[in-house]
Amino acid sequence: MTVSIFIGALLGPMALGVPIAFALILSGVALMLYLGLFDAQIVAQNVLNGADSFPLMAVPFFLLAGEVMNTGGLSRRIVALAMAMVGHIRGGLGFVAIFAACILSSLSGSAVADAAALGALLLPMMLKSGHDAARAGGLLASASIIGPIIPPSIGFILYGVVGGVSITKLFLAGIFPGLMIAAALCITWFLVARKEQFELPPKESGAVRLKALADSIWALMLPVIIIVGLKFGVFTPTEAGVVAAVYSLFVAMVVYRELPPAQLFHVFVAAAKITAVVMFLVACAAVSAWLITVADVPGALAALVEPLMDNQTLLLIAIMALVVVVGTAMDMTPTILVMTPVLMPIIKQAGIDPVYFGVLFIINNSIGLITPPVGTVLNVICGVSKLSMEDLMKGVMPFLIAELIVLFLLVLFPELVTVPVSWFGH
């Protein structure tokens, strides 16, 4: 009964168009009334405490770094480097998109920011070369979701804070799975685009490639600084966010000089608006998270999945299927905030490594960004490409299947996540 009340109180208001943040509070209040614990002070206290977290301070700084990256020329130079290196091979613009997405993901940690950058920079070029619009848009959308997987990742930060998991370990654990998804996209793009008739850009000379590399070296140094700093304990993930923001501002304003001081205010405002949305969701989710614990919702769910508790693979497959379904109706941030406190006790009880589960969970939530009807990344690409959601979904489908296959392989072979982490000394 407790689970039914929680789900009904959450999904009912959402179906009526109530913003997710307020629906989270309503679901918590509904549980409080059911348990006879209602107290407005408890609601207020949990909202305040929910956003009062040192690790969460990384979120605004990484979001600011993403805004600076797109405005200050870092994204454009990354795309230009990828274009110079692989743009001339058959289907090269698609490989450029995937290559650029991997690098951009190590700068911003946001799929939406990467989708906006890739869509604005590459989609017109792909259409001009003769690529199918839906297929090109589908690839760009699918490549953008690498952003929350390869560190730094805002999704990993939220999961680590809510689940009490090491964010540094999550960052390092996401590198190899992110590259696996990139490889799967490359294979899929090669298969679907080989029958297309399109114009190939000319092969750039060695001098042009070196110039593109030299021009982008400042942008490429940022992920190196973050990963090396985290590995050797130079700074925490929160401090890494500060480093990323300050470094990107320095490069955009002093080195590239594409971010004039007059535009700085607008960049800060844009980052602040996105931060406000994320942090308000986190604060409101703290109410429902507290009630989830008090009402022992994880215990009720554990009883439902008890037949699977002795088989970690089957349990993970069942949970991943559930998250895929939830991801079609909810955006990434609320899904993490709602489901992490529910699933974490079950994961620990089943003896599953929370870091390993976190990688699977964030990959699954990232895939949810390209599944309708919510599909935030789909909406971004639709806005850039002027395609309908139906047409774009046709283009996304082959890449979506490839990413689900990678997720399934990671469920079957946990060492694909755990072994690469050990390479970094953890």
UniProtKB/TrEMBL annotation:
It is found in: Cell inner membrane. The chain crosses the membrane at residues 7-35, 139-159, 171-192, 213-234, 240-256, 268-293, 313-343, 355-375, 395-413. It is a multi-pass membrane protein. It comes from the Bacteria. Keywords: Cell inner membrane, Cell membrane, Membrane, Plasmid, Transmembrane, Transmembrane helix, Transport. The keyword Transmembrane applies. Pfam families: DctM (PF06808). GO terms for molecular function: transmembrane transporter activity. Residues 8-416 form the TRAP C4-dicarboxylate transport system permease DctM subunit domain. GO terms for cellular component: plasma membrane. The complex comprises the extracytoplasmic solute receptor protein and the two transmembrane proteins. Part of the tripartite ATP-independent periplasmic (TRAP) transport system. Belongs to the TRAP transporter large permease family. This is TRAP transporter large permease protein. It comes from Sinorhizobium fredii (strain NBRC 101917 / NGR234).
